[in-house]
Amino acid sequence: MKTGSRRIVHFDMDAFYASIEENLDPEIRKYPVIIGSDPRNGRGRGVVSTCNYKARAFGIHSAMPISVAWRKCPQAVYLRPRLATYQQVSMQIMELLNQFAPKIEPVSVDEAYLDCSGTHLLYPDDLNLARSIQDKILSQTGLHASVGVASNKFVAKIASELNKPAGLCVCPFGQERSFLEPLPLNRLWGLGKKNVAALNQAGFFRIGQLASAPLSDLRSVLKNRAPLIRELARGRDDRPVLSHWAQKSFSEEQTYDHDTTDLAVITKTLSHLSEQLGYRIRCKGLHFRTVRLKVRFADFRTHTRAFTLSASSNQTAAIRQAALDLLIRFWQQQNQGGQPVRLIGIALDNTSDASAGIQKELFPSNSFADIRNISLDKLFDEINTQFPGKAHVASTL
Length: 397
Description:
This protein has three domains: 174 residues, 2-Layer Sandwich (Alpha-Beta Plaits); 56 residues, DNA polymerase, domain 1, CATH 1.10.150.20; 137 residues, Dna Ligase, domain 1. The termini are far apart. Helix content is 40%, strand content 21%. A five-stranded mixed beta sheet has the order 5-6-1-7-8. With 397 residues, the protein is α+β, with helices and mostly antiparallel strands.
């Protein structure tokens, strides 16, 4: 890549969760491996989290109902996700990448962008840079990654996807548009299936066609997004790599083994989910202001409700109370017919760094309750850290 130009690397771990499980138990490498909820011999009610490439050959994919996966591939090895283990490996990988770039932007546990601009003296050749990143990850973790290099984030991500698994791909500086031209529209970020189908109907099938199309033609399908999509199709993306990325939303949800109309059962679930979310956000040193409730009925209709607190908090009690209030109002307004619930969930949004301070009420009316809640949260965190998943303090004391 030309010296002085931006040099962006995107890496994406290949079948990350499943590959970690294969490293922990090499015997399962010869089988399709599916990570997700318990299939219960085809009667499971959750979904597939991810799977290895052998399972993908059977048509298995993430978010597929686990019962469907079982029917397609009953001979697979089915495993429950071990998120703490995956997060630990992810942190190890991010630390390894520090030697390649001063700016790293994690996108998820298994992918990130690196801004390697200015590293040409250390790594003059883009392909060798990508291979060095691959080799470092493989030698230290035993895991394969696919790596793309380009002058911007959008093209680098597409490059990393083209030759999976364990792929390497470089888009030379100045050739972004020609690199994208022959690719199908579903490679273009921001285009869903409906957009692609509508564009196909209008005669667009390749990214290059979008790049050269008049905006008036694209607006008929893409509306106000037409200018952005055409810029991306031309290989232009000036988004910076954000080295101080932080997770902005946290969520927990539970799919019931059997649909339920029992409000006491749902309330107990919300209490448990609140504890887990409170623990997670405190571990990150964050506060939240918005609590979202998610309810999915047996017919898969999904509803969400949200409430924003007057002041930021990191207390489990605040999560629980907001979620319960949302549930009661929703139940009274939307579920008078007593429709059975399949899934319940909570999400925390509008997060902020605890070190920045939080808004406090001038005359706190529940200072004793706050002290009690803080003490309970501290006790819960200590127990949960020592015995993960075993603590149930706040809802029982």
